[in-house]
Amino acid sequence: MEMLSAALDSSHINTIVTAYWRVSVVEVTASTQSDLVALVEQGKGKSGDVIAAEFQSAGRGRLARSFEAAPGTALLFSLYIQPKRSRDDWGWLPLIAGVSVAQVLGDFDAQIKWPNDVLINGKKVSGLIAEVVGDGVVIGIGINAAMNTSELPVPTATSLSIEGAHNRTRNQLLGELLNIFEVNFAAWELGSDEIQTKYQDLSATIGREVRVEYPGDRSDIGIAMSISNSGELVLDSGVHVHAGDIIHLR
Prior knowledge:
SH3 type barrels, 14 strands, ligase, BirA Bifunctional Protein, domain 2, 7-stranded mixed sheet, Biotin_CoA_COase_ligase, biotin--[biotin carboxyl-carrier protein] ligase activity, aa-tRNA-synth_II/BPL/LPL, alpha+beta, BPL_LPL_catalytic, 5-stranded antiparallel sheet
């Protein structure tokens, strides 16, 4: 746990990542996502910019949810990219990020719950949010790192510390994750759709009976069959799920 809670160090992280990335670290902020979105909107953000924080007072998750973790217990960061591929394909970007997180946590047999929650032993260890801003996308990622059981946000969550990751630092984790994301993103940029196969191989959702909960108390139940070319979850009924909460039933 001591290694996972060791302070973030931008100079260390920037020696790990490729020249594509520029990582900055702040001690405290309301939200790395809001900070990076603001920089982009002001014309100051560039593709490859990353902001990481030790603590967020107003962290943001999917579907307008809040997220908070005690200082030093989570890896919290946002990155900005400017895809050259058609905007019609941008729905895959948060899924690419989910694949990248699962790959960097491959030692724990991490899987992805559609669309991009990352699970270890069926419990959530990471989630993310993606926003189109200007000519690009800001992706915010949170990974439960050094949390103990009492610090978990919900009983269905876990952390790297709980799962036995005691020989890695958040600096190493962030550097490795950014480099893996860059490889996946670059291949996708060049027109490769290999990410679809990678996603399905890592999916904890495909093949399972699920309940889809939509805003407004509407829901669907069915077998998750595949991922569409635009990143939607396809049920055996033919329904294409663009956004919603997925509950694994069995």
